[in-house]
Amino acid sequence: MKQDSTRNTSYTVDCEDYVHVVKFNPFDSGDSCSLIAYGGNNYVVIGTCRFQEEDAEVEGMQYKTLRTFHHGIRVDAIAWSPETRLDAIPPQIRFCTAASDRKLRLFTSDLQDKNEFKTFDGHTDYINDLVFAPNEGQEIASVSDDHTCRVWDLEGNEKAHFVLRSSGMSVCWHPEEAFKLMVAEKNGTIRFYDLITQQAILSLECEQTPLMSADWCLKNTFKIGAVAGSDWLIWDITRSSYPQDKRPVHVDRARLFRWSRVNENLFATTGYPGKTTTQLLVHHLGHPQPILTGTAAVGSGLTWHRTLPLCAVGGDHKIFFWVTEM
Transmembrane stretches, by residue range (predicted)? Predict the structure, then answer.
């Protein structure tokens, strides 16, 4: 099941629904398998993955569905809680979704009889992204087309509310910077907010629009990446509020930007879903050209494995996985 060419996926998993969003758990859940969540038109599915790249006894990859949660509406974004533990007795799965009805839903399950969910109301337009506080997991931040970033407690109470100047596209919370929130706006501005004073403390500019996605590098807190128009852009926040590096990558328009979780020079971008295929590109800052090009039939979502240089994209009743070099 190895790659024969750059375009072929390393692995695929068949899914019971169209996959709008896919997310590896970025936190350690105390198990040798990786948790993955994917969302479709009606369901969220939680499963585990194990790859031959991390376990010689696995042939290719092993995938197992742990539980399917009825969602009743299209899933637009998923965030994992650091409180998810597979090594606890009983285990705990906790994640939050954003849906097309402008609500957040917080799910908590022991994978047996206890399956709870709470609905958070407040956003007045489409929710584009959400994230849990990375260390304790007691708060959730979300950004929306309603020009707000909101921070919620786990009961659904609004703890903070930032007014933006355009649609909020991405929100990031870094485990080493627990009192700061990064918010990326469609107008090309990325701001950092101090959660204690609830003030903006730093801003970065793309100087081009629309900014569709941004990410805060796990391995280097000074590095921010984004896609705007058809370009990717990288900032070093210690140097300038303007991009240090940028390059046109997707002919039509770029849609998502995600840093690898294992290497501060590795990142992936996707293009807009075309009529038939979505292009995935994996980039390394030391290389002038993408180091991997993949295509997925009407793909959406983009996520990196917690400990491997491996990323996944959702598609039509499938998840596609690509393994790349470090």
Answer: none
Residue with tokens 């509406």: 73
The residue assigned the tokens 């002919």 is 251
Bridge partners (DSSP) of residue 160 are 151
Quick one: how far is CA 5 from the chain centroid? 26
Is residue 310 within 8 A of residue 324, CB to CB? The reply is: yes
Whole-angstrom CA distances from 41 to 57, 94, 99 are 35, 20, 10
Angle of CA points 267, 217, 196, to nearest 5°: 155
Q: Looking at the predicted structure, is the pLDDT value of residue 144 above 70?
A: yes
CA 154: distance to chain centroid? 20
Q: Strands 75-80, 61-70: parallel, antiparallel or unpaired by DSSP?
A: unpaired
The sheet with strand 75-80 has its strands ordered as 75-80, 93-99, 104-109, 115-120
What is the Cα gyration radius of the chain?
A: 18
State the pLDDT at residue 275. Answer: 61
* Euclidean distance between CA atoms 56 and 78, whole angstroms: 31
Over the stretch 214-256, which tens digit does the pLDDT of each residue have?
A: 999 999 999 999 999 999 999 999 999 999 999 999 888 899 9
Regarding beta strands 139-144 and 75-80, do their DSSP bridges make them parallel or antiparallel, or are they unpaired? unpaired
- Closest C-alpha among 279, 224, 277, 273 to residue 249: 279
**Cα-to-chain-centroid distance, residue 17:** 19
pTM for this entry: 0.96
CA atoms within 13 A on the CB side of 128: 24
